[in-house]
Amino acid sequence: xxxxxxxxxxxxxxxxxxxxxxxxxxxxxxxxxxxxxxxxxxxxxxxxxxxxxxxxxxxxxxxxxxxxxxxxxxxxxxxxxxxxxxxxxxxxxxxxxxxxxxxxxxxxxxxxxxxxxxxxxxxxxxxxxxxxxxxxxxxxxxxxxxxxxxxxxxxxxxxxxxxxxxxxxxxxxxxxxxxxxxxxxxxxx
Length: 189
What we know:
The protein is mostly helical. It has helices at residues 5-29, 35-121, 130-145, 171-187, and strands spanning 154-155, 158-159. It has two domains: 1-102; 125-189, no CATH class. It is built from four helices and two strands. A two-stranded antiparallel sheet has the order 1-2. The longest helix is centred in the middle third of the chain and has 87 residues, at 35-121. 3% of the residues are buried. This is Chromosome segregation ATPase.
């Protein structure tokens, strides 16, 4: 296994430290010291430190390139998400406008049925009572709205309360079950 640059630097520094001790001893003992080996090791140490610096520079450059590439990917992703969000918002707006129109028509038809039932029977069946019908509609709507992730009871300024209805309830079938016995008696008169 090849030693890393930092391991090689440590080894050369240790060898140089030992050579410094020999050089110091040679000076004190007035003996001969081979300075060429020491000079070669200092040159090698300098080259290793240069290589270490270059390695750090390359790693930083690679990291910078990776960050730049990541940011470019995130920009592309953000553009795509913005496009998807705009499409979803358009669909939500269309659906909300359609819901408002459908609820208005449903409430109007309920009022017309209540008036017709009153004219025939002299009273309004309780399932056709406008306030009760609106309450049932709002409960059903609240049950569906509560399925919005992270917005169980509220979406901005809109609030809805816990509902006895289930999000999967069939609104028309539920109303038919409530109204059927009352309509049957009125229509048979």
